[in-house]
Amino acid sequence: MQLDVSRLKGWLALALVPLIVFAVIYVAPVLQLFWLSLSRFDPSSGIVPAVDPSYYVEYLTDSYYLGILGRTVIVSVATTFMTAILAYPLALYLLVSTGWRQTCLFIVLVLPLVTSSIVVSYGWLILLGQKGLVNDVVIGIGLASAPLQLMYTNTGIVVGLTHVLLVFMTLSVAASMQGIDANLAKAARSLGATSWTIFRTITFPLTLPGLRTGCLLVFSLSMSAYATPVLIGGSRLKVLSYLIYQQSSSLLNWPFAAAMAVILLASTLGIVGLVRFYEYVRKNTALHSADSVIEASR
Amino acid sequence: MSYRPDGTYSAFGRIKRGALAAYVMLVAVFLIAPIVAITLGSLTDSNYVSFPPQGLTLKWYAAIFSKPVYLKALLLSLIIAFLSATAASVIGVLVAFAMHRYPTRLNILLQAFVLTPVMLPSIFIGLAFLIAYTRMGFGGSPLGLFAAHVVVATPFAVSLILIGVGAVNPALEMAARSLGASPWRARRLITLPLVAWSITAGWAFAFMMSFGSLEVSLFLNTPETVTLPVAIYTSLEWSPLDPMLTAISSGLVIVTLIVLLLLVRTVKIDQLMKRNGS
Fold it and tell me: Which of A162-166, A197-201, B71-75, B236-240 has the lowest mean pLDDT?
């Protein structure tokens, strides 16, 4: 639809205030952060304006810093994997249940997300400790003889992150499950397929777009999580977001903190972008080869 | 509404259906476990945090009232969440109508401004706010905190209100206009009641996101601007096993639950899933 002047005025009447407000309180600060990440910092005189990428070089050549980035990525991949496995039955149940059951499941899924991350992590602190309920149960039913170390481990962090982010994966998978034509499964059944075969050959392939959306969401949210890894992982198992906070609030080195924040953003968006790019290339080559097959058959 | 899923479920026998329900119960226990541990743990009679609680008492809740720091933090969090959720809903209504009534390429700009904050790491935007707001002169003030929370809460309000406005048939409003209603009257009597549920839901979601937000407030934290999550975070470093801290935390849970129930009463879960997909 072409936009004439009167329609543009109508659009502006609605959009102008949000645009100006967000330009000042959101877009300008973000752009400034990029700019500041190229400045230098001097402990005595403060921030020295410069165009100097040396904080990026410092981060990306230091094995200590790279190790922290590596662990952040590994924890995020593990969390994505865990949520994907847990989400499928939940998504199915969310769709087939009705009334209060559906509402209850929805509340239970959303609750960890909307409750402050600090409170949820505190809860895990109580449950996962040496004398916590989880260890009592594990020892009580004879799975272990001594308390397991769950706090301050990568496993603990993955448990905490999976807990908070499961809702994103479940809703994404449920959304694409909802679009599947029920006749496909009926046809498969009439031909003697078991429910496992139906899942493997119909449901799973058709929910791949939702699975992909869920994976990208969960991965990027795990990469940037703060409270869960800091409280469950402690100061020994640092993640990148903790490093950024430490650098800016204790050491007051804003330029270095800004450079690390950009690296965090770039590594998150970078992996997400790579996935998108790979799919784009594959789709195009698939179309191309399909074309050439048609071409050849003529 | 009554949706028959892809057929996998209808192929399930009684045992498989039972197994699925049992699995969902297990995951539900996993999902509510830490929150239950906090709320029930706060009732303990012992002088350290213990779950399951030993004895039952409300003395830790009474103890909060002798600590004005936490009450101040709770009050500030409530005010900031209320104001930023309201601002986010107003922005949400403006943006949703601009995008649905005027399909133009400029809407991409609008989307980039109000929907992307949720995609950026909260540590990233927290640091950006600290740097920029300090330079603009309202870094450590409640105003800076309010601005930051508006940014954090707006994407949630916008995406819900977009669903609501998108579901309204614009022909209804036009019909009212053709029968002589003024544009304002048509919008107030026809469109507004139809999108009201999404505005309430968007407000509630925005409120919860602001009320629980830790990272952004942590960066803008000064002695005058301590929100409840920040107060809990800093106390956790010194005395993680103080039962009073669980009492404060469950206070936070209770406020969140009340708003969540308001949200669930208004939201249409099936419509949510339709939009959430790719």
Answer: B236-240
The interface predicted TM-score (ipTM) is 0.87
Domains of chain B plus CATH, in order, are 67-276 (1.10.3720.10)
Q: Are B275 and B163 in contact (CB under 8 A)?
A: yes
Q: Report whether B207 contacts B78 (CB < 8 A).
A: no
> Is A272 an interface residue toward B (CB < 8 Å)?
no
| Calpha distance A189→A191 (Å, rounded) | 5
Which fold is adopted by the domain A50-275? MetI-like fold (1.10.3720)
Stretch A125-136: mean pLDDT: 83
Residue whose tokens read 């449901």? A203
The pLDDT of A196-202, averaged and rounded, is 87
Contacts of A110 in chain B (CB under 8 A): 260
Residues near B158 by beta carbon (within 8 Å), at least 6 away in sequence: B88, B91, B92, B95, B96, B114, B115, B202
pTM of the model: 0.88
B234 Cβ under 8 Å from any chain A Cβ:
no
How confident is the model at residue B278, as a pLDDT? 34
Q: How far does A122 lie from chain B, in Å, by closest CA? A: 8
Residue of A nearest to B28 (CA): A108
